[in-house]
């Protein structure tokens, strides 16, 4: 014989679940294409972020004239390469920065500089701007010359180190690999390429 099963109504199931949280406040915005979208903020006292432009506007360093006005861009920007580098053992921030720069440049080919796509421009005219996000507590340990040596060609016209990256646990301390602790260093790199 089959045992009889208790029947549940949908009302009893709903009552036994935890109460629903109220909906998040939202703000209506109109995008550049005219479509409407909503931005929701989990905290009604903190307004949602303003929409971000979908246009890619490169922030290029500008040189200044004697009066402080903008003269011209340091280079004509063609593209930006980005990478992430880790040093899981040994706590070497330079190794993480070298890996971040290699990650940024190794998945790209730049035939325009060799094939004459830009008249009068070749690898001799290539210019690079390097920006690294490095944890503040390790910035003084960074060997910039070792990082710059990663780039096979192009003139490095700026090399900037900003607060960024991360120090987190690698989960294990291996003295045989030079570890002093279980810290893993992470560096972010942005390489601006132009002429």
UniProtKB/TrEMBL annotation:
Q: Which UniProt keywords apply?
A: GTP-binding, Nucleotide-binding
Origin: domain of life = Eukaryota
Entry-linked Pfam families? Lin0512_fam
Show the segment(s) annotated as Disordered: 38-70
Q: Name one GO molecular function term.
A: GTP binding
Q: Which NCBIfam families match?
A: lin0512_fam
What is the protein named? Uncharacterized protein
């Amino acid at each position: 014989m089959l045992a009889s099963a208790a029947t549940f109504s949908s009302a009893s199931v709903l009552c036994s679940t935890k109460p629903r949280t109220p909906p998040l406040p939202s703000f209506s915005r109109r995008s550049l294409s005219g479509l409407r979208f909503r931005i929701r903020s989990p905290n009604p006292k903190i307004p949602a972020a303003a929409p971000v432009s979908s246009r890619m506007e490169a922030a290029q360093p500008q040189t200044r004239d004697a009066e402080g006005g903008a003269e011209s861009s340091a280079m004509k920007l063609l593209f930006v390469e980005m990478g992430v580098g880790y040093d899981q053992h040994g706590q070497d921030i330079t190794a993480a920065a070298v890996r971040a720069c290699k990650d940024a440049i190794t998945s790209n080919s730049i035939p325009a500089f060799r094939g004459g796509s830009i008249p009068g421009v070749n690898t001799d005219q290539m210019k690079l701007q390097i920006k690294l996000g490095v944890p503040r507590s390790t910035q003084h340990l960074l060997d910039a010359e070792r990082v710059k040596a990663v780039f096979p060609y192009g003139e490095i016209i700026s090399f900037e180190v900003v607060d960024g990256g991360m120090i987190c646990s690698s989960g294990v301390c291996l003295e045989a690999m030079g570890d002093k602790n279980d810290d893993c260093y992470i560096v972010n790199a942005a390489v601006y390429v132009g002429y």
